[in-house]
Design a protein that fits this description.
The chain has one domain: 2-Layer Sandwich (PF0523-like), CATH 3.30.2380.10. It contains six helices and four strands, in the order E-H-E-H-H-H-E-H-E-H. The chain has helices at residues 18-31, 48-64, 72-81, 86-93, 111-121, 137-151; strands at 8-14, 36-42, 101-108, 127-129. A four-stranded antiparallel beta sheet has the order 2-3-1-4, with helices on both faces. Helix 3 crosses helix 6. The longest helix has 17 residues, at 48-64.
């Protein structure tokens, strides 16, 4: 992905119901238009290193007009889920699926926008930021699978 924008990515565990998550999501998207914001459900915390690389793919696709879906937020969910099928992505990681803990994912090519977003989120005590880890083999395999979605493979 040489020449692609770098994604600054952060994630928070959400101790809320899916209904509350929806309200939070709407408010954050409205309050931070330069930040790509998505909520997903997962049985384990997402890998921030993988998310950052996958978000960079979404940001690059959005810039070039080649996203997998009309909205970048949905493109990100598709890539995280490893599928081009919206229904399958929602079943795997949609926040209303009931399949695990809810996580707020935020990414932007603009580091200042991400810092402002993190300050905005930091005021909500129901959200706890996840720590960073080093990318391993599994992470890189996930990112590769997400990249192949753009190739139609």
């Amino acid at each position: 992905m040489e020449g692609s924008p770098r994604a600054h990515c952060r994630a928070w565990r959400m101790d809320v119901t899916p209904e509350e998550a929806e309200g939070i999501l709407v408010g954050l998207r409205r309050g931070a238009p330069k930040v790509l914001v998505q909520v997903l459900a997962s049985r384990r915390p997402p890998d921030l290193a993988a998310l950052e690389m996958v978000a960079a793919q979404t940001i690059a696709a959005s810039t070039s007009g080649e996203t997998l879906a009309k909205k970048p937020e949905l493109d990100l969910l598709l890539r995280i889920s490893g599928t081009r099928q919206i229904g399958e992505a929602i079943e795997r990681h949609g926040y209303k699926s009931g399949k695990g803990t809810l996580y707020l994912i935020a990414a932007s090519a603009d580091p200042k926008a991400m810092e402002g977003f993190a300050k905005l989120v930091g005021t909500d005590l129901r959200l706890r930021e996840l720590p960073r880890r080093t990318a391993g083999k599994t992470t890189l395999e996930r990112v590769e699978r997400a990249a192949l979605l753009s190739c139609g493979l």
